[in-house]
Write a structure and sequence with these properties.
Length: about 170
């Protein structure tokens, strides 16, 4: 028991000195400037005492809760900054648009929780019932109602639209 208490007291002292706050199954809820709801969830979150930002493990961001369409963004990791109103997630980002069946994959996404705009400048690939698209960067506006793809240099925006043929 003495050894156990000594070890535990060292762990408790170290945790209190670091000022880190650890959360499991974290959920941060809020609204953008237009009153549209969002949730930033994660399997785990650790608050950096120096910056106040949360380092996220397995984040999942859901935009436009309660609406007909919910945009969900998942990744391996990320950072939530409540002061700057941003969520930076990546790598292995997957953005799925509820209802349309369209999915984007990208190395990184930045969610502005004040405006609800999602952006990325490290390339993007998309696939859905209408076809595929590849671009250098993207911006998702109006909770997924409008997506803008951009190309730069040799990386032009390229897309394939599937034709709707009867019988197929």
């Amino acid at each position: 028991w003495t050894v156990f208490r000594t070890v535990m007291s060292g762990v408790e002292r170290k945790a209190s000195e670091s000022g880190e706050i650890r959360l499991e199954n974290a959920r941060f809820r809020g609204q953008d400037a237009q009153g549209r709801a969002f949730i930033v969830g994660a399997k785990g979150a650790v608050r950096d005492p120096a910056t106040g930002r949360f380092r996220l493990v397995g984040p999942a961001v859901r935009l436009n809760l309660g609406g007909r369409k919910v945009t969900e963004i998942t990744a391996d990791g990320g950072t939530y900054d409540d002061v700057k109103k941003t969520v930076l997630i990546g790598p292995n980002v997957r953005i799925s648009d509820g209802g349309s069946g369209f999915t984007l994959t990208t190395p990184e996404a930045v969610v502005d929780t004040d405006t609800g705009v999602v952006t990325g400048s490290k390339g993007v690939q998309g696939r859905g019932p209408l076809g595929t698209i590849n671009a250098s960067s993207y911006a998702i506006h109006d909770q997924g109602q409008r997506i803008v793809f951009n190309g730069s240099g040799d990386n032009k925006v390229r897309g394939v639209i599937n034709s709707a043929r009867s019988g197929d």
